[in-house]
Design goal:
The protein is of the alpha+beta class. It is built from 24 helices and 21 strands. The longest helix has 28 residues.
Length: about 700
């Protein structure tokens, strides 16, 4: 770990792993192993033939070694790539699987994940290993008009149990709206391909009897530990998140507080949590060293407990990274050898990528390693810049330096994924880290008491008190004006270039050199060139899009950097959802955005945005656009059945929104022009019956995603 050039192995292997994981190549084991063996033989021959000529040996050996690790990475990526199990969809099926998490109420349904093992359809039966998100109606078997009575005997799934459920499997799809997160791709990388909607039987119950209770699972261990905590729901949910890695119970309000305060890293079990647990165990097991007079017994016991904790928390990227690094540090210490911190971090990264190449695409994995690499390289520079002998000031500067280094290392990723930067994160860490340290220390100490059942009341009160104080402090910081610098956006290539710049800076700080300075300047030039190209491309193009939302329509016209959104919506919940979407997807500083709710305007009024116009031609029939883009919108109030109605010949698209009065056979008129006929999510499939066999010529956003066209 001190002299091994891990970076020379990590780079080609990572590039190969990403190529195999994201690509469409399919190899058999022999097709991967045979070329690898040939390259290994070539390496041995080069080493033997040119052993007396180091220069030639290096010139020949290095490219072959690069190709070997690249090809090995490709093979690992192909093997680890998730594959769609091809389960029967859009028909009534029965599934069997193990419950992975405690059900949580969302929009009137209980939502939880199931480790799916088998699916039985009308005439099919298949075994599989994938994870599905289940949506279950939260009704009991009691037929009562009183809602409280209906929930009285409700029995919900318990983590660790194996259940059978009947319902429909639905493929996970994206709405395809511009700027929206590609959740389908993210979930597929985690081997999540379907959602399962349970049947709503006549008595309201979709639950079948529990078949069997399997072996002890991590979810059961978490539930047993959490059953000891008694307090307000939000405080208990916080303890579940910071101690056991279960964030399913956190409300959106709590998440928002922590996000605005810059304390989201507190909610995710990471290296900070593992480090605190290691420190407590190291202190608590000191008598073991004095008793046995050997350090190895304490090290082995601590590592065993840490890996058990990693299993309980679900082997998340941050926990695996932390436990792996502690294992390497401990092994180095037992061998009486000093280890380089950067090399240890890279070794742990390499080991985790070998086991699961898909981790590199995990947001937590990227943020975790970016933060740690920045801390071990940049923080020593901060520590040397200011020295003080005052213990309190020294601790404050240490905590501030660590937090600042982590923020600098993760800044491009935070902007790319979350589009905002917390301003008061340094203050948050000064308050949150001491509280988190107390919570983790008390949690570790309480484990023996939980097993025996003695003294749990006192510990529970202390944990609830500390958790409540943590929530209150995050809420107070989040309420300070200007706590978040928002509307920050990066495209993928820009984010990659910024991360390369950060990586080069970290390596240059660790080991200054002329080559790194040249790479630094070259990356800066590429960033400026890419930014100029994107800005120029946006200014010279027009775009029209029709988003996919339920119960509402959103038409967006962009000309250059000026963006107008026109909304036909009568549902307040849909309006709030679209308002958040517009701020997130189009809120970047370079755009001049205007939003108009057309449904609230008087009949006949002409609406003008930044560069487009919206004119009501007749009740429920609108025209939108400008010189470059023209379209028509027919809403639920529109009557297009009268003789003489015909869309404007120059229209580029025709949107059916809501439920217009479409007489039988009128689809021929709508399809007679050169425009694109669109039916968005507001119609919920009504047009498919009314336009009969013409649906193949209609752009249905429910199936194809949002309509987008550039001019």
């Amino acid at each position: 770990m001190k002299r091994t050039p891990v970076i020379r192995i990590l780079v080609p292997f990572s590039i190969g792993s990403l190529s195999g994981y994201l690509g469409s190549m399919v190899f058999s084991p022999g097709e991967v192993i045979i070329p690898g063996v040939i390259i290994c033989a070539a390496l041995v021959l080069v080493w033997i033939i040119f052993r007396r000529d180091p220069v030639v040996r290096s010139i020949c050996f290095s490219p072959l070694a690069f190709v070997l690790f690249f090809w090995t990475g490709v093979g690992g990526g192909v093997v680890d790539r998730p594959a769609d199990p091809g389960l029967p969809m859009d028909e009534r099926v029965m599934i069997m699987g193990r419950i992975l998490e405690k059900p949580v109420e969302r929009n009137g349904r209980m939502v939880f994940e199931v480790d799916l093992r088998a699916v039985a359809g009308t005439d099919t039966f298949c075994r599989t290993r994938t994870v599905v998100k289940v949506y279950m109606f939260q009704y009991s078997t009691v037929d009562s008009s009183d809602e409280q009575d209906r929930y009285a005997d409700l029995q919900m799934p318990v983590p660790g149990e194996t259940w059978c459920l009947t319902g429909r499997l639905v493929a996970i799809r994206n709405n395809g709206n511009p700027g929206e997160v590609d959740y389908a791709t993210i979930l597929k990388r985690k081997n999540r391909w379907y959602r399962f909607y349970c049947d709503k039987a006549s008595n309201g119950s979709c639950r079948l009897p529990v078949m069997r209770r399997g072996a002890l699972s991590a979810a059961q261990v978490r539930e047993e530990a959490m059953a000891r905590w008694d307090g307000p729901d939000q405080v208990v949910s916080l303890l579940r998140a910071v101690c056991l890695g279960d964030r399913s119970g956190l409300s959106e309000e709590t998440r928002e507080f922590y996000q605005r305060a810059g304390g989201m890293h507190v909610l995710a079990v990471s290296g900070l949590h593992v480090g605190l647990i290691w420190w407590v165990l190291h202190r608590a097991l000191s008598p073991l060293v004095r008793l046995l007079r050997k350090e190895i017994f304490r090290v082995v016991l601590i590592l065993a407990l840490l890996w058990f904790y990693a299993w309980v928390t679900g082997f998340s990227s941050s926990v695996c990274r932390s436990v792996t690094m502690f294992s390497l540090f401990s092994a180095s210490r037992l061998m009486s050898r000093r280890s380089h911190s950067v090399n240890v971090v890279l070794v742990s990264m390499f080991l985790l990528i070998v086991l699961h190449p898909g981790r590199m695409l995990d947001v937590g994995f990227q943020l975790s390693y970016a933060a740690v690499l920045a801390i071990v390289t940049i923080h020593p520079v901060f520590r040397k810049s200011i020295r003080t002998r005052n213990p309190l000031l020294k601790w404050i500067w240490e905590a501030t330096g660590i937090s600042l280094a982590a923020q600098l290392g993760t800044l491009p990723l935070v902007v790319y994924y979350f589009h905002q930067v917390p301003v008061y994160a340094l203050i948050t860490n000064l308050l949150a880290i001491p509280l988190l340290s107390c919570i983790i220390a008390l949690f570790v100490v309480s484990v023996p008491f939980m097993l025996t059942g003695a003294g749990t009341a006192i510990i529970n009160r202390l944990l609830i008190l500390l958790g409540g104080l943590m929530n209150s402090s995050m809420e107070a910081i989040a309420s300070i004006p200007g706590s978040v610098l928002g509307n920050l956006f990066m495209d993928p290539l820009y984010a990659v270039l910024c991360m390369i710049l950060v990586t080069i800076t970290i390596l240059w700080i660790s080991k200054p050199g002329g080559a790194l300075s040249t790479l630094f300047l070259l990356t800066l030039v590429l960033i400026f060139a890419h930014n100029t190209r994107i800005h120029t491309s946006l200014q010279s193009t027009n775009q029209a899009s029709v988003a996919h939302f339920r119960k509402s329509s959103l038409v967006t016209i962009r000309e250059g950097l000026v963006v107008d959104h026109y909304i036909w919506c009568s549902d307040p919940a849909s309006w709030n959802y679209m308002d958040r979407y517009i701020k997130t997807a189009w809120g970047r500083g370079c755009y001049k955005v205007s939003v108009i709710r057309v449904s609230e305007t008087p009949s006949g009024q002409q609406l003008h945005g930044g560069i487009t116009s919206c004119i009501e031609l007749s009740p429920g029939v609108w025209t939108v656009g400008n010189e470059g883009v023209r379209g028509m919108v027919i809403t639920g109030e529109g009557d297009v059945g009268h003789p003489g109605f015909l869309p404007e010949p120059g229209a580029d698209f025709l949107l059916l929104s809501g439920e217009p009065d479409l007489p039988a056979g009128h689809g021929t008129t709508l399809l007679s022009g050169s425009w694109d006929l669109i039916a968005d999510g507001s119609n919920r499939g009504w047009y498919e019956n009314r336009l009969l066999d013409m649906t193949a010529q209609i752009y249905l956003t429910r199936e194809k995603g949002a309509y987008r066209k550039q001019y």
